[in-house]
Amino acid sequence: MELLLECERESSAQRPDEPGFAAGRSLEEWTAAYSKVEKYFWALRIRNKVFLGQLVLYVLKAAMRQAAHQPEVSATELAIREMDRMLLDWFAQIMPDLHPENEDTLSTRGRLALLLADMPGKWQDQFLRPGPWPEEFVTAMRETFLRAGPDFQHGTMPPRPLDLGPVTTLANLSRSPYFKVAAFSAWLAFGVLLVLMFMSSISV
């Protein structure tokens, strides 16, 4: 909460806000954005609470700078966009000669390389930091980035028709004119039988 209040003070210095608001959004919105970004970094195994708080604050500051230009976008979405942009820029700086053109591929392989290189365990303090970085860290990231590439592919699964077994056979039969005639004859016979039973009951 202290970090969030610091963001609020910086935003208020640029443009006055109503009480309980920062960068045109309510503090509740920014609290939700804070929680979302924190969980994302936690999933990347950033465990140091002080460093984690600094990273989240860094993302929220960037999101607040964009808030005035995008009033229709929620605080959480702004924060997620800024976080993704920062990650992509950072991956591209570490691997300028290796990163692919496709941003989705870069993001996926980059995050996988972080875990394969054990960034959280060995170089957690380098995460999202500008260079220069330790040579061992850069080498590990590049090697694991290449290793994560060939086996990781975006696949497509074309839809296949459902086999409903006997239901499909019955549905196909129902379209046959012979089936329709047989069904009509059966219902007609059933109706005649009901009439005969009704007449016999009256005569009795």
Summarize the structure.
The protein is mostly helical. The protein is built from nine helices and two strands.
What can you tell me about this protein's structure?
This protein is mostly helical and 204 residues long. The chain has two domains: 2-148, no CATH class; 172-203. 67% of the residues lie in helices and 2% in strands. It has helices at 2-14, 27-43, 49-67, 75-94, 103-116, 119-122, 135-148, 166-174, 177-203, and strands at 21-22, 25-26. Strands 1-2 form a two-stranded antiparallel ribbon. β1 (21-22) and β2 (25-26) form a beta hairpin. α2 packs across α3, α2 runs parallel beside α4 (75-94) and α4 (75-94) packs across α5. The protein is elongated, with a radius of gyration of 32 Å. Residues 1-6 and 10-14 have low confidence and may be disordered.
Number of helices: 9
Task: Write the H/E string, N to C.
Answer: HEEHHHHHHHH
Mean pLDDT: 77
* Tally of domains: 2
The poorly predicted ranges are 1-6, 10-14
- Spatially, the strands of the biggest sheet line up as 1-2
β-strand percent reads under 5%
Q: What is the number of beta strands?
A: 2
For the record, give the distance between the C-alpha atoms at the N and C termini, rounded to a whole number.
90 Å
Question: What is the overall shape?
Answer: elongated
Structural class category: mainly alpha
Main beta sheet strand tally, sense and closure:
2 strands, antiparallel
What is the rounded Rg? 32 Å
Amount of helix: 55-70%
